[in-house]
Amino acid sequence: MKAWFSSMVCAAAIGLSVGAPARAADDPAPAIALRVMPINDHLTAFYQGRPDEASVKPGPKHWPDLGAIFVGVATYAIHQGDTAVVYDTFTDTASAQWVRDYLAKVGVRRFILVNSHWHLDHIGGNAVYADSMRIATEATRQKLTDKRAAIEDGTEEGPPAIKPLLVPNIGIAPGNTVTLMVGTVRVLLHPEAIHSADGLVIELPDDKILLAGDTLEDTATFVAEPQTIPQQYSNLGAMRQWGFTRILPNHGNPQVIAKGGYGLGLIDMTRAYIRRLVEHSHDADFQTQTLESYVGDAVKRGDVSVWWAYHEAHANNLAVVAKAWKDQPIPAFDTLP
Length: 337
What we know:
Blueprint: H1 3-15, E1 34-40, E2 43-48, H2 63-69, E3 73-80, E4 83-87, H3 93-105, E5 110-114, E6 133-137, H4 138-152, E7 170-172, E8 178-182, E9 185-191, E10 200-204, E11 209-217, H5 229-239, E12 246-251, H6 254-258, H7 265-279, H8 291-301, H9 310-325
Parallel strand pairs: 4-5, 5-6, 6-7, 11-12
Antiparallel strand pairs: 1-2, 2-3, 3-4, 8-9, 9-10, 10-11
Helix pairs in contact: 5-7, 7-8
């Protein structure tokens, strides 16, 4: 990233002065209770969902259930003194407001929102930060702008609608990295075309921690853009070399997140998983191949665990990969970076 833009963002962050709004008496509480998980003295995870399958009541399911609550969803705050960088905003404003109120109670007055990508379970509470700097990739800004009407009327992924939809007001171009300082904590924002082309991950280089957004998941990644799997495979390999040793995804096992995150085996599992999807996409029995047959070795190593809600995600992955690759030659993954 050009130095002038990085400096501009840092200066704006330092100069941002807003107070956390008081919650009105009739503001709704989060529908799903949030858990607070301190990772270290300047990084906190907020976690929601991941119920046992037996506790899920029958009836209609909507995108927050399928994409977030059933698999479990985390957002993160990097904070020091009166400043916090908040990474994603859950599926709804009540949950996002709860996080903001929690941070305000421990002295935070300056907020910077960072969205990992455009998918609805990461931007549902953006409206809580209308008075704050809001950063995403330029591709996320464009995607949300283009889809605003459908998201606000509840037709993008079905109900519930997100209204109003608040679009980030600062965009980062591909290939650029922005550095923020939260007190003495260095925060690097990296655009990464993994999971979705508009992805943005956060590296805390002094902690050797990666906040991965949806680029990595436990049990397995949700394949949103199957046609770019070879590029995602290469990008994951390059990201693995950055120097971090712990990974905190937005969707993962809360026990692992609370203990400080995953090791690099989560990347290795994800690369192996998406590679195998493509390499087996011409198999006659492809769409009946089980999740366990794809991740069994990683489960034995302790890199991931099988969670019930990912069986549906895996079935979806098989379907979209089969459609995207049925008439395409299988790439030689061993020749990719």
